[in-house]
Amino acid sequence: MNDFIFFFNQAIIGGVVLGSVYALGAVGVTLIFGILRFAHFAHGDMMTMGAFIAFVLAGAVAAMGIAFPLPTGFIVVPFAMVIAAVFALGIDKGFYAPLRAHGAKPVTLLIASIGVTMMIQGLIRLIFGVGTYSFFETQPKKLIRIDLPFEGVTRPISFSEPQLLLVLSTIVAVVALHYFLTRSRLGKGMRAMADNPDLAKVSGINTRLVVRVTWVIAGALACLAGTMLALDVSLKPDLAFNIVLPIFAAAILGGLGHAYGAIAGGFVLGFAETLAVFNWAVVLRPFRDALPEWIEIPNTLSLVQSEYKLTVAFVILVVVLLVRPTGIFKGAST
Amino acid sequence: MTMRYITVFAALVALIVGVAMTMGSAFTMRLLVEASAYALIAMGLNIQWGFGGLFNFGILGMLMVGGFAVTFVSYPVNHAFWQSAGPLMLGQVVLGAAIGAVLIWFAHRVQRFGVTGAARGAVIVVAWFIAYVIFRSQMDPAANYITSTSGWVGGLGLPVLLGWAFGGVLAGLIGYLVGKVSLGLRADYLAIATIGIAEILRAVIKNLEWLTRGTLTVSPISWPVPNPQFYQANGADITTSFILARGGFLAVVAVVVLIALFLIHRAYVGPWGRMMRAIRDNYIAAGSMGKDVTGRQLEIFVFGSVLMGIGGAILVSFVGIYDPSSFQPINHTFIIWVMLIVGGAGNNFGALFGGLFIYMVWMLSEPLAQSLFTTLSGWSASQGWGAIPDIETRAVQMRVFVMGLIVAISLRFAPRGLLPEFIKRND
Amino acid sequence: MSLIALDKLVAGYGGAPILNGVDIAIEASDIGVIVGPNGAGKSTTLKAIFGLLTVTGGSVTFAGQDITNFEADRLVPLGLSFVPQEHNVFTSMTVHENFEMGAFIRRDDLSDSLDMVYEMFPDLKAKRRQPAGELSGGQRQMVAMGRALMSRPKLLMLDEPSAGLSPRYMMEIFEQVVKINAAGVGILMVEQNARQALAFATKGFVLANGQNRFTGTGQELLDDPEVARSFLGG
Asked: Which of A170, A330, B306, C60 holds its CA 20 to 30 A away from the CA of B5?
């Protein structure tokens, strides 16, 4: 039983945490693709940028001597999201909107987003250097342990407070997004524009407004994802650049343009990564006596060595692109 | 139009002379060697994107493959490995892989035995899994054995120029495989697929300690011409030795670049280039006129990859150390795109110019930013606001920002580059 | 004053103009039908009115206001509505949501308009929660017309509403067009089924090579032997 709790702590909690980050990132990528039809490569750096905004705010709040029962980095997230949304709007206005006005092809916008990636990364490193920061320099990172009331179970279920907050805020964000997309006039307008941009225009939908709303949502969600990721691990300038590909993989897996697909894709990849590097020998050991003698359980029995953890997402991505480029879910927006 | 070429290249020469006067000849020589290698790589991307319209965001992978090739070919032979059981075990790995490949081959043809649909998919997945287990069961012990007994497999001890050539061949082979699996995809999917494959390559090369020494790095990697130590042993002072050795290296690289430029240019203005442009501009029409679109695109992808592999091999052999963890998307993929966008996609001379020019901007951004920051810092200190901390580490980052800005400005105001593609008209 | 008036309209996709001086004028009480051979510029005329391509000469006037080269999101609030020939529903959205999107510019209560549309197309009432992409071609055309009516237009423009429909659906669509017109909405439509459409048109326009060839009431055009020979297949 202890071994299963180990499995739960390592694989299930790890998968949910990673999946939440991927899902939040992938939703932004997929919304931008749905509305503007280009792969927004700078999304990872918008996440990093959002995390640094939250970091600066948290530093300012801590400097004022205000303390909270929750991590300060988490308390300031809503404000950071607003600032990040404004930045996202500014990036669109400064770099993408002029190209769109000139009738640039999606490929040109993709290349432009590489330029934006480099500018954001350069600026972040210029201002903050290349070092690693922690949100928990002035407060402790709390661990939550839940002891199970079963006989012979000594190992508790354990996870950190930021991980819990990450999962909770992902749920809140996803539910809020769901209601926005299915209940509000603007949200439905966004879906309409993703579905059929020409008809949306003909229907009198203000497409410029929809584009702005898309950047606001994508920027805010990127900030949330980046900050929560930085709270869970640590804050560094290449925080999210390294996971922008798994995020794209999640968005493609879910069918680019489909918000729910992106969320599902994020969790599929999160679990795939953690399960692939999980040491299955631990779970098999309790059955040692039931197995025939000639089967020997090695000390490590993982599908993929942990050095190759990130490649799991890429392999899945490449396989999906080749076998089913519209995504595993109903992909209509190609 | 000719005026434009003269202006642009004259400005480049002026820039080089200016750099030589302020930064010294040895530094300029180094800059030129590296810039020429980058120009070669940019010409490779020009073939793929400029001529063929094929997106490749996996340039980094090709450079790593090229670097590995030159390391493997030119590094001295590791006798400890060849005298151990290592080669035999690697033979078993190859055998295991072959068995797995046969298994997969049969699984993909299982519909001939009446297994179709979901069952066929299941068989294929199981076959891949079994093949993977067989491979790993041979590979893991072999890798452990080699790293513990002899460190790594070592090199072949052959001439370094052969290594450059092998870099091209190996990158071409990888390019063939990458192209084979991903060329059917749309532009943005192709971009993401190639970047994904490059990241897989990067992870593999970084972690295959038995083959590449991984993060332990390999050095020194020899030069095709006498190196500075050779001149120093013959009595030259340090600066002169660097200028002489790097000058020799530059001459070799320049010859490679000129040969490549000549060959590509001839192909481009000939029927092959015409067909390529036709396919790029309207592959449906080209396909309906009986052109083998996928075949030609694959050809293009391989040619471009060959140049990238040679360029990567040159860079590694010039630096003299193969460090897989030094390869970064920004320094080795995105910057090539900046070169091509600024220079002019579809124009060989644009790629050449962009490669040389952007690499110099990239390298000069750092000292320029540093002096800018030092000035600013002195000013802010004199105003009583204090100096800017960590100027040196920050100045390095300035160049990334500058590159991003250059792309944004270029796309906005000169979307076809400084030397746009010229279209020969018969009227 | 006409509801909509096109005066010597010249428009195209950037190259040589496709329309070379088209004149059309209809009243709110009219059902205007544009017929003509393929490539005559029928659909182009509607797109030019709706700001989907650039007008380079002439003018479009709507209820006295010059609307030449207005973009679509400014035209809908004025009271123009357009049903494109293809891709005219949001396939991933429900029938109901399609109607809501038609009323995107409205901030008031939609229930009256929704009741009216469902009354007009009772088949759709049962399918209101279904994605429009799952409906048959005829039902999709109804969704598209319903969507266009949700903005309470003064002028409804339809691009070949009967294309690809069975005769039964074609008749139903035409009947609804007449009803919509009776409710005070001006109609301007392009039709391939020229005979059937001209039979109920109050104004007919025959276009060829981007120019007006014949203009008259629907019946006049049907009776004109030259129109019949050249454009209505004898």
From this structure: B306
**CA dihedral sign of residues A310, A314, A317, A323:** negative
**Residue A334, domain member (yes or no):** no
Q: How confident is the model at residue A302 (pLDDT cuts 50, 70, 90)?
A: confident
pLDDT exceeds 50 at position B78: yes
**Dist CA B147 CA B214 (whole Å):** 11
CA–CA gap between residue B300 and residue B268 (Å, rounded): 11
A chain contacts of residue C72, beta-carbon cutoff 8 Å? 201-204
Q: Per the CB < 8 Å rule, is A191 touching C92?
A: yes
Q: Is A83 part of any domain?
A: yes
Q: What pLDDT score does B290 carry?
A: 73
How many distinct structural domains can be found in chain C? Answer: 2
What b-and-e string marks burial along C18-55, b requiring 16 or more CB atoms within 10 Å of the CB?
A: bbbebebbbebebbbbbbbeeebbbbbbbbbbbbbbeb
Q: What's A215's domain CATH number?
A: 1.10.3470
Instruction: Measure the CA angle with vertex A113, ends A111 and A115; round to 5°.
Output: 80
pLDDT in tens, B276-306: 888 888 777 877 777 788 888 899 999 999 9
The number of distinct structural domains making up chain A is: 1
Residues C203 and C170 in one domain: yes
Q: How far apart are CA B328 and CA B109, in angstroms?
A: 40
Domain B2-73+159-217+256-413, second-level architecture: Orthogonal Bundle (1.10)
In angstroms, the CA B194 to CA B173 distance is 15
The answer to whether residue A130 is domain-embedded is: yes
pLDDT above 90: percentage of residues in chain C: 65
Choose the mutation target among C92, C105, C157 for the interface with A, i.e. most A CBs under 10 Å. C92
Q: Which of A110, A123, A311 sits opposite B191 (nearest CB)?
A: A110
Q: Which residue in A192, A198, A332 is closest to C101 by CB distance?
A: A192
Question: Would the pLDDT of C124 be above 60?
Answer: yes
**Do the domain assignments include residue A329?**
no
Q: Does A206 touch chain C (CB under 8 A)?
A: yes
Nearest-CA distance from A87 to chain B in Å? 16
Contact A238, A122 (CB under 8 A): no
In angstroms, the separation between the Cα of residue C229 and the nearest Cα of chain A is 36
Cβ pair B190, B297 in contact under 8 A: no
Residue B123 CA to residue A100 CA, distance in Å, equals 47
